[in-house]
Amino acid sequence: MIDGFSIPTAIHLLLVNGAVTLAICFLVTLSVSWKSFPVEGRFVPTITGLSALMAPILFIGSIVGFMMSSSRAPAIGDVMPAVLSIVGGMTIAVYSLESVRKSMIAGLACAVFALTLMVGSAYGSFIRETSKLERMLYLSEQEVRIRNYRKNRGLPEEIPDWILEQ
Hints:
The structure is a single chain. By secondary structure, this protein is mainly α. It contains six helices and no strands. The chain starts with 6 loop residues before the first helix and ends with a helix.
């Protein structure tokens, strides 16, 4: 289990990243519609359409960022090559597309993924750092329980080495 993770934490993270994604989609929609407003028949995306396309990327970026930074294991060495591969693949895909629509959506997806990954990792590291005291108190309570159990059973106070090796 990851320390500090709960349903309210997940909802808060997804709401923050949802707001970031909506802001990006709003800015892209505003930019594209402002430039193409006088000409009929041009591609003018809607905020809801872009947000619907970006929703899976929002979830993936949020979850990967949070899990990567909230764990105590050094996961950055495993996650960053995968992230860079995704961004590189998206860049190649964008340059190989002939459609402006598809390239704009692919570029937007890459930007949303990078930003939600960054926000998710910042939030995960914040949760990890603020829950250190709680974890230390929990481990201290476990130690007291183990010592009381060993004392009540007449076992030596020191824990054998073969238990700690696991």
